[in-house]
Specification:
This protein has three helices and no strands. It has helices spanning about 5-40, 45-65, 70-90.
Length: about 90
């Protein structure tokens, strides 16, 4: 454990950031799963597109906050959008 006050503060800040980042990542994974479940259950297109928009928004925010690397967020958004397009543009 840290002895210096600034190191103690830093450790506390790091833990808070870690938990926030974990929460954001979990929310993103849940949003992605909801889109995939909507595709699997053949949900109406407008409902699926709304879920996709929400997932994209969460990933973009995480990218901006530094939770996800820019390329990772772009790749996930691209793949998810491609799955939705393939399902509804048959």
């Amino acid at each position: 454990m840290a002895n210096i006050a600034s190191a103690k503060k830093r450790a506390k800040q790091t833990e808070v950031k870690r938990l926030k980042n974990l929460n954001r990542k979990t929310a993103i994974k849940t949003a992605i799963k909801k889109v995939i479940e909507a595709l699997a259950s053949k949900a109406p297109q407008d409902q699926t597109l709304e879920l996709l928009k929400s997932a994209e928004s969460q990933m973009a925010k995480a990218k901006g906050k530094g939770v996800l690397h820019a390329n990772t967020a772009s790749r996930k958004i691209s793949r998810l959008t491609k799955k939705v397009a393939e399902t509804y543009n048959k």
